[in-house]
Amino acid sequence: MEVTPEPLFFTRRKLLKSFGWATGAAALGLALNDWRPPQTTEITPESITCGYNNYIEFEASKYHERVPSLAASFQPLPWTVEVTGLVEKPLRLGIEEILKFPMEDRTYPLRCVEGWSLVVPWRGFPLKYLLDKAKPLSKAGYVKFISIDRPEEMPIQRDRGYPWPYTEGLRLDEAMHPLTLLAVGAYGKTLLPQNGAPIRLVVPWKYGFKSAKAIVRIELVEKMFYTFWMEMNLPSYGFFANVNPDVDHPVWSQSTERRIGEFGRRPTLMFNGYADQVAHLYQGMDLKQMY
Ligand SMILES: Nc1nc2c(c(=O)[nH]1)N[C@H]1C(S)=C(S)[C@@H](COP(=O)(O)O)O[C@H]1N2
Ligand SMILES: [Mo]
């Protein structure tokens, strides 16, 4: 496996000094351009990661290459993220405050349930850092991530037949796992709209749809709930959605994947390569029953 062993992800911490959002090359000088992603990993070229996306608010078919242009005029500023629900200290933070959090560089493989994958150098902070500030109450068992609802800028959201806004979720222990990241940047730049600007989740051992983009609210709740994809009633999108080469999608096998930019296919790894770090979270659960 060519992905950097986990400890290396934690080595470089820097503070984002200034704040602003870049959607064009001209503005990119502001925050992150001195940063280089880890050299030990075969990172997917930036042009691919930023040119081949899944983002149903903008594009409902599988025309992945169309997403960047459809998302280009999306406005990531101003932006507020709320942490609500079963917490001792509800939070309401402007993105400029969030950008002052201590940041880490993490290079993670992203495995889409459709059978393709990328390796992306993210910049962000562990979700745990934010949840600890909000102090989850002992009743809290699950975390809900709610993406923005802005039909003026997101063409598919004008079709109100979908269960908008995009909602995803994790069990609280999954959310508190050190690998679970809130990303604000990638490739040394602030996130582009197509990748979930200004802030998105990244859960590297789960299928890509768990990693919600453009998050405005994080709500702690007691019980498991229906996510956007579960509401869509698609049997291929479960709540756990851990990457598992032994559990097939109803229509295709999940045993291999196409790493975008490579020829041929490569084997899909259990928990997307993070079994050592996360298998304990599912002890006693039947992984074959978890899609
Ligand atoms: N809000 C929102 N988040 C989303 C999606 C989406 O449609 N809407 N798609 C998901 C899916 S299916 C994948 S594979 C990843 C893709 O992330 P990327 O485009 O940055 O590679 O985003 C996930 N996050
Ligand atoms: Mo996906």
* Radius of gyration computed on alpha carbons: 18 Å
For the secondary structure, the number of strands is 13
Indicate the proportion of strand residues. Answer: 15-25%
The low-confidence runs, each spanning 5 or more residues with pLDDT under 50, are 1-19, 23-40
- Percent in helix: 10-25%
| Helix/strand order | EHHEEHEEHEEHEEEEHEEH
Ends apart, CA distance between termini: 23 Å
Give the helix/strand class: alpha+beta
Number of helices: 7
Largest sheet: 8 strands, mixed
Give the distinct bound molecules.
Answer: the ligand Nc1nc2c(c(=O)[nH]1)N[C@H]1C(S)=C(S)[C@@H](COP(=O)(O)O)O[C@H]1N2, molybdenum atom
Mean pLDDT: 87
How is this structure best described in words?
The protein is an alpha+beta fold. It is built from seven helices and 13 strands. The protein has helices at residues 46-49, 67-71, 95-98, 127-134, 172-175, 228-231, 275-278, and strands spanning 13-15, 80-85, 91-94, 102-111, 116-126, 142-147, 167-171, 181-186, 189-190, 200-202, 215-221, 256-259, 266-267. Strands 1, 4, 5, 8, 9, 10, 12 and 13 form an eight-stranded mixed sheet that branches. A hairpin with a 4-residue loop joins strand 4 (102-111) and strand 5 (116-126). The longest helix is centred in the middle third of the chain and has 8 residues, at 127-134. The relative contact order is 0.18. Bound molecules: the ligand Nc1nc2c(c(=O)[nH]1)N[C@H]1C(S)=C(S)[C@@H](COP(=O)(O)O)O[C@H]1N2 and molybdenum atom. Residues 54, 112-114, 208-209 line the site of molybdenum atom. Molybdenum atom is lined by residues 54, 112-114, 208-209.
